[in-house]
């Protein structure tokens, strides 16, 4: 699919010109920030409105907020807000993901158990609407639009040009990491799902990965790995006590590493680092250039032993292939004590508020001839989890394969989103395959 035109906007007026140009011709518009849409929805047969040059950063120290142009990505947010500004902010982990998609689609971050999703800290969004008008949406200005943008706004209601976001203090945190023998994968999974979602918010994040990777030597059998880690804002002793059920499953030597780490390092995006002179440097994440197909699930109940056994078996059967990187699952915990679940599901369009944990089915292969087997593996894995998953899916991992995407992404908020779409975009100028349609 090729667009008729791509417009690189340098100002709000440029965005207004593009929207008006498209409206007069009846062309569909796609807003583009980070170019990371899993389904390619930042492209269109009409005109692409690229906002990557709208990348200003402005602090309001008195109110503890920062206003970020929609062209900022995860790397520039880290460099300008955390490293340069000394303030904590909900941010992603992939350096090149744009804030436009990250914030409007929810924004799961490395401290979401403690602070919620990125969308929970968004206090204002500036938007060019389909009629060409430039408006600000907040709790006090156009609150219906503000409600819709926070979780349902990715390319649906207009072109976002900036976001005003609440920031936090940025103290050092204890970063922890554990590995386990594959023979204990099922035990680790069960212990993790009982422990991490029930932990206090002091456990800012806790993830678990079960993966299969090609051998580092380039030949021989694939290697299976179980690892867990995260961030803790309390004392080391309290962390060790909390994690004892997991630590007891680890190796006798070095069962866990815990390092008190400055926030700028603890929350750096993948491939990024702060150099000794204070400057920053970012390379590419290890899997950045690999073809991939990933799907997501939110789990609201613990998985029983049969389901865990299925997960272990599926990871063991990842097909990989020549030049492949990895396959498996990554889990991110939330749970009732987390800030993620402390917000009502209808408080904004982001509906996923009863989640124990989020799962991504990871799959990064190499040569083109491996694509069919790897895509089939993801789909088989996903199908095998239907008896256990909630049916909800993360709209930022937008998935063309979903038939129930309206409820999977938006739940009971779908009809209200349609009503707001009818008010702001009645002619569906901002349209795509899984876009929100105006109520009839």
Write the layout of secondary structure elements.
Layout: E1 5-8, H1 12-25, E2 29-32, E3 47-50, E4 57-60, E5 65-69, H2 74-83, H3 99-104, H4 112-115, H5 118-121, E6 122-128, E7 134-138, H6 143-152, E8 159-166, E9 173-180, H7 185-195, E10 203-213, E11 223-232, H8 236-242, H9 244-247, E12 257-261, H10 263-266, E13 272-274, E14 280-282, E15 295-299, H11 305-316, E16 326-333, E17 357-364, H12 371-384, H13 405-410, H14 414-424
Parallel strand pairs: 1-3, 2-3
Antiparallel strand pairs: 4-5, 5-8, 6-7, 6-8, 9-11, 9-12, 10-11, 10-16, 13-14, 15-17, 16-17
Helix pairs in contact: 6-14, 7-11
Which key phrases capture this entry?
440 residues; alpha+beta; Uridine Diphospho-n-acetylenolpyruvylglucosamine Reductase, domain 3; Vanillyl-alcohol Oxidase, Chain A, domain 3; 7-stranded antiparallel β-sheet; 5-stranded antiparallel β-sheet; 14 helices; 23% strand; globular
How would you describe this protein?
With 440 residues, this protein is of the alpha+beta class. The chain is 27% helix and 23% strand. It folds into two domains: 182 residues, Uridine Diphospho-n-acetylenolpyruvylglucosamine Reductase, domain 3, CATH 3.30.465; 220 residues, Vanillyl-alcohol Oxidase, Chain A, domain 3, CATH 3.40.462. It contains 14 helices and 17 strands. A hairpin with a 4-residue loop joins strand 4 and strand 5. Helix 6 crosses helix 14 and helix 7 crosses helix 11. The longest helix has 14 residues. The protein starts with a strand and ends in a 16-residue tail after the last helix.
